Amino acid sequence: MPDTEYRYGFHDPENYVYRAKPGLSHDVVSEISWLKKEPEWMSKVRHKALDYFLKKQLPEWGPFLGNIPFDEIYYYIKPSERQEQNWKDVPEDIRNTFDKLGIPEAEKKYLAGVGAQYESEVVYHSLKEEWTKQGVVFLDMDGGLREYPELIKEYFGSIVPYTDNKFSALNTAVWSGGSFVYIPEGVEVAIPLQAYFRINAKNMGQFERTLIIAEKGSRVHYIEGCTAPVYSTDSLHSAVVEIIVKEGARVTYSTVQNWSKNVYNLVTKRSIVFKDGIMEWVDGNLGSGVSMKYPGAILKERGARAEILSVAMASAGQQQDVGSKVIHMASDTSSSIVSKSISKDGGRSSFRGLVKVVSGLSGVKASVRCDALIMDDTSRSDTYPYLDINSPEVEVGHEATVTKIGEEKLFYLMSRGISEIDAAKMIVSGFIEPVVKRLPMEFAVEMNRLIDLEIEGSVG
Amino acid sequence: MSSASKQNTLVIEDLHVSVEGKEILKGVNVEIPKGEVHALMGPNGAGKSTLAYALMGHPKYRITEGKVSFHGKNLLDLSIDKRAREGVFLAFQYPKEIPGLKVFHFLKNAYIARFGIDEGSFSSMDFFKKVKAKTELLKMKEDFITRYLNEGFSGGEKKRMEILQLSLLKPEIAILDEPDSGLDIDAVRIVAGGVNSLRGPDIGVLLITHYQRILNYIKPDVVHILMNGRIVQSGGPDLAEHLDNVGYEFAGAEV
Ligand SMILES: Nc1ncnc2c1ncn2[C@@H]1O[C@H](COP(=O)(O)OP(=O)(O)O)[C@@H](O)[C@H]1O
Ligand SMILES: [Mg+2]
């Protein structure tokens, strides 16, 4: 399928303030650390993580990762002198890019704050005064480390240690950018915060790092979006996200992932949820060539809850290997996983769902539901559920369905005068409706529009 | 009749239809002019639904011989959606469930497609009122249009949903495939009332039924009996009553 319908495939000239040599070494890590003037402890963590990355093998399960050009990737590119709080101060090329992506406009209309990352650094950041006055902190991670070093030291790597997997080690070694969010006790941020990640350079590696701390009874919805130009060589995106949901707090983390198909997207996202807290992951994976992403939740105290909703679309040349992980560590905790995948034009989607319940618990509820829609005979979908239940009184539900788009449904809709393309779109958007309806309206519209474009590309 | 005067008649000539390699319809001839209601009766497995699907263009039902024309066009050359826009409508014997597709969204899109309306000039509010008025006539529940299309609907709700679409999309040829099957007598009255309110010079109806019961409420102008893929008898309304008394075996034997 031609990539012409990928609207975000344009790129700017590569004018950088600083670019590290391609390839990964202790020198590159030292260089990043030195440029950032960060504390000694962080620099040490980076080097230890790099050692771990270098000795750890690629995972033996999941998509083939042996073609990632680790030696050709740029691990750090600084695109501009400083971070701005005013779009007009952002270098023109970069500002134009974000204009085309509609970020400043969205910010005005329906966001509480925006962070815009371009290559390795966040070039623009702002939070509306209403929220700063209430003590909400929304910075890039580098800014967070400068201004709140104790908090970062306490939580950085506490939920996703660098030893978690090869790519969390990589991220820890070369991280740059990402968000630091702190919501004080009792504060409810009524409208979403958005972070937008843009890769522009060829062979770029982007390694943002995010930490969200929601204090007692607070509430926040954080949304991330991402795109990249279309190149013939591969780029690598490997993020780590850690979220702390304290007593009675509620965090929603939504993603509309729309990388170009030459991006490897290998991401580790996890949260820890305390008493009566709620974590919601809403994850839309439309882009990238290979994605591996399993947002997780550790339900640490009584009453904690996790909901993980995901949609993945695997089209020509794409492998969406997605899923989720929930670990119940306390009684009366509950989790719900709903996954919807669409495979078409030879695309492949896989769902991996892990639910673990430790021993000695009662009143635990867990449900896993995964539905796959297959649009044609060349596409594929697989499910790998894994339940590890060590307590007797646990209510676990597991359901998996695979459906073909089906000429019967198309026939029914077309018999009302609806064209084949529109009928296919209606069936697909109905299929993902249970997940998409959980997104704020603007993002639901965007997600449906992206999926419509994909379907037009294949049926048309 | 000259062919020009058949513009407003659905003309089915010598229609042969196969499903999965097996011939089901073996040369069907029927003419349904606008303004008339034709009942098509026959035992289970006779090929009634096959005729309905073939007329609408279901890809599994292969036409091996014959012709179907309407508005001077060969219907068989048109895609499914184009047949619908030409004014052909099929009320399904077993309507399909489309999870996640909201009834209102579906109705609106079908309406816009059927009449080729420019979306810019379309008023959702006016359309909503129109739908609401019709749902009241069909005694459908309030929450109905916010539900997902046919998902979790009872048999009776599905049938009413078909009649609602029929009355919104104003077809010129309506094929109703057993609109009464599985309904209690009150529901049959409501469905029949819906169909009768549309009767008139602008619509031709092919009413498929296994039992004579619904014909007490929707009076046909012509009755055809289909057996083993052929029309074995055609006549006036009394043919249906006669059939009710003697049964299909006997009717078949008369030929
Ligand atoms: N989709 C199909 N696949 C296989 N056989 C079919 C299909 N549809 C109809 N048939 C066969 O065609 C014959 C007529 O069926 P149908 O048209 O549904 O009859 P009726 O509606 O009169 O009860 C039956 O023998 C049935 O088994
Ligand atoms: Mg039938």
Topology:
The complex is a heterodimer of chains A (460) and B (255).
Chain A: E1 18-19, H1 26-35, H2 40-55, E2 77-78, H3 92-100, H4 103-110, E3 113-118, E4 121-127, H5 129-132, E5 137-140, H6 141-147, H7 149-155, H8 166-174, E6 179-183, E7 193-198, E8 205-206, E9 209-214, E10 219-227, E11 235-237, E12 240-245, E13 250-257, E14 263-273, E15 278-285, E16 290-293, E17 296-299, E18 305-314, E19 319-328, E20 334-343, E21 348-357, E22 362-374, E23 380-389, E24 393-404, H9 407-414, H10 420-436, H11 441-459
Parallel strand pairs in A: 3-7, 6-9, 7-10, 8-11, 9-12, 10-13, 11-14, 12-14, 13-15, 14-16, 14-17, 15-18, 16-19, 17-19, 18-20, 19-21, 20-22, 21-23, 22-24
Antiparallel strand pairs in A: 1-2, 3-4, 5-6
Helix pairs in contact in A: 1-2, 2-8, 6-7, 9-10, 10-11
Chain B: E1 9-19, E2 22-33, E3 37-41, H1 48-56, E4 61-70, E5 73-74, H2 80-85, E6 88-91, H3 103-115, H4 124-137, H5 155-169, E7 173-177, H6 185-198, E8 204-209, E9 222-227, E10 230-235, H7 238-246, H8 248-254
Helix pairs in contact in B: 5-6
The complex binds adenosine-5'-diphosphate (ADP) and magnesium ion (MG).
Residues 48-49, 93, 177-178 of chain B line the site of magnesium ion (MG).
What does this structure look like?
The complex is a heterodimer of chains A (460) and B (255). Helices cover 25% and strands 37% of the residues of chain A. By secondary structure, chain A is an alpha/beta fold. In chain A, β3 and β4 (121-127) form a beta hairpin. The longest helix of chain A is centred in the C-terminal third of the chain and has 19 residues, at 441-459. The model of chain A has no long low-confidence stretch (mean pLDDT 94). By secondary structure, chain B is an alpha/beta fold. Chain B has one domain: Rossmann fold (3-Layer(aba) Sandwich), CATH 3.40.50.300. In chain B, strands 6-7-8-3-9-10 form a 6-stranded mixed beta sheet, sandwiched between helices. The two termini of chain B are 27 Å apart. Bound molecules: adenosine-5'-diphosphate (ADP) and magnesium ion.
